[in-house]
Amino acid sequence: MVSRLRFKGDPKGKVVKNKTKGKRNHKNVEQSALVPQVTLEDIETSWTTSSSLADSYGPVMLCLLDDKNNVRIINWKDESLCTLGDDFGVNEHDQFTPWKGLIHTVEPVSPSQVMICSSVLNSNGVTLKASKGKYLAKTGDKVSFNHAAIDTSCIFKVDFQDDGTVTLAIGDEHILATPEGELELRGSGEATRFVLRVQMRNTVRGKRMIEELSGKKDVSSIEEEAIVNDAVQSLMKYNVELNDELVKRLEDAHKRGRLNEQLIEERTKLKSDSRC
To answer: What is the pLDDT of residues 165-182, one digit of tens each?
Structure first.
């Protein structure tokens, strides 16, 4: 279940309409001072920048900086065409995103800016679906929302970068946003770095904070979940396949006091499989 999305015209809320139309950029815009007290409403209604596959599901936005360093938002139109827009909301009191800049405060003002991201079993891939039900898919040398059902042309690999951005690829081709506002597929040497904005409540950290503030978990349980999540994140940079079996192995290893040994075994197994 996801919380209600807020858009332009809503009577109240901390999201303010972007009035810069590209005049501000991520280099000279600082986030507001952090508010020390976090409430359940903050977590339930805020968006944040994803830094891992574990946090990247449910409603998401894809943002980028164009060649003039202006923030642009990926939109879908007529259920198929992808375009770049500059109309978006801004959360001026973001307490959760570690990266600075306007692009890391963006929130949606229209359903056309929101996609549903879902992980694909037994892979490190995701699918992206527009609210009208069509999936983003490879169509020739472009990508568009034109598939009603999932097939291999709809599964994109997400590579997370250290600066809070991601690249999207299908096979050996990466998504590149052109100056004309289209999304094309190019060789591995060219790739647009996107910022993936997600609902805070759907992140591992957000869920943990909600449970803590709601009194649904004791402190030891929260700390244990945090340790296992950190272990999962440490494996993601080695392209280890994320699935329920992996999480269960790490949880069991942590309970037995041999989490570090299990992490070494997982990395060793990955190297062995890659040589086969």
So the answer is: 999 999 889 998 887 777
